[in-house]
Amino acid sequence: MLKKVAILANGGDVSGFNAVIRAIVKTAENHNIECYGYIDGYNGLLKNDYVLLSTAGNGDAKGILPKGGSIIGSSTNSNVFHYKVKKEDGTVEYKDLSDVCIQNIKDAGFDCIFTLGGDGTQKSARDFATKGVNVIGVPKTIDNDVACTEITFGYNTAVSVAMEAIDRLHTTGETHHRIMVLEVMGRYAGWIALESAIAGGADVALIPEIPYDINRVATKIENRKKRGKEFSIVVVAEGAKPINGDITIMGKRDNGAGVDNTKLGGVGQVVAKQLEELTGLEARNTTLGYMQRGGSPTAFDRVLSTKYGVKAMQLALEGKFGTLAVMKNGKLDYALLEDVVGNNKEIGAVSGNTAESNIRKVTMDHDLVITARNIGINLGD
């Protein structure tokens, strides 16, 4: 019988974190289960830093449904299986501190840990499950790239923000007869770029899954000009790359080992410059950046997050640990964390865009791709 559970939010912040937390807490309270939250993700688990979460009285989980971010924080640099430790002499070494975390869980008496996060977070969750911890994951990321589920919470809000940006860029592009380029997040998956391009009426969408030919994009824009359309909207995913080329990176984050440290960004500016040279039209780039992560979640994400939180707690009550709450064929379900990580079986291994990773990418037979092509959106190929 469950008596005490704990939640940790990990990875980049998204709108919907708090809605999931609230749903887990409220469902736990309805079953007389105490619910706690680790502060700052896996870092809090390592430091044994947690707080009681409650929706009663002045409880921390009260009134948080519309709030962006996470009331218990989050962390993007905490693979506790390969944790960066600074020694007294200033040098750095990496240690497996997972056993410290496991002992903290036992000492606190937590019967289950809920891990709210994306690819890297759920990889560590699987690793903890392998070592005997009762873990249940909830798929979070604006990138929508977690395997085994059709949608992640936070994604819809990010797409909505990108769509609004496209709407605003339309008026400037039309007024000044410019090419307006919008660079959006998504890392190695093109979901945000593709769906926001369709929703915003963009003319071009460049995504990581389809290496682009900049000359074909220029031809699309020139043909529009011949038809009297003297402006164009180009949406570029941060992980987009030219045919036979590489992704554009801004550098490496110092996030420690065992996590994807590649800092993407800059491809929008590259594309804008190339298109200006090829077409003779002025081109301007806007990089949307962290605007996609912040703020209040959409109605869709509030509902989805709530459903995910309730499902996660139900899985715990049923004793279905080592799983991820997912959406399959439009219905709530669950998947084994072993299936979520795919071939990435090594404890503490790097997550992200590796041969072993199991991140969900856009496929060429997906409805979004077919729809985009049929309404004339150029995908760069």
How does this structure look, described?
This protein is of the alpha/beta class and 381 residues long. It folds into 2 domains: 4-154 and 297-341, Rossmann fold, CATH 3.40.50.450; 159-293 and 364-374, Phosphofructokinase domain (Rossmann fold, 3-Layer(aba) Sandwich). The longest helix is centred in the middle third of the chain and has 22 residues, at 155-176. It has helices spanning 17-29, 41-47, 98-108, 119-130, 155-176, 191-200, 214-226, 267-279, 299-317, 337-341, 367-374, and strands at 4-9, 34-38, 50-53, 83-86, 92-95, 112-117, 135-139, 179-184, 204-206, 232-237, 249-252, 262-264, 283-287, 323-328, 331-336. The chain is elongated, with a radius of gyration of 22 Å. Helix 1 links the parallel strand 1 and strand 2. Helix 5 (155-176) packs across helix 6, helix 6 runs parallel beside helix 11 and helix 7 packs across helix 8. The strands form 4 sheets. It has a 7-stranded mixed sheet, with helices on both faces. Strands 9-10-8-13 form a 4-stranded parallel sheet, sandwiched between helices. A two-stranded antiparallel ribbon has the order 4-5.
Short précis:
With 381 residues, the chain is of the alpha/beta class. It has eleven helices and 15 strands. The chain has helices spanning 17-29, 41-47, 98-108, 119-130, 155-176, 191-200, 214-226, 267-279, 299-317, 337-341, 367-374, and strands at residues 4-9, 34-38, 50-53, 83-86, 92-95, 112-117, 135-139, 179-184, 204-206, 232-237, 249-252, 262-264, 283-287, 323-328, 331-336.
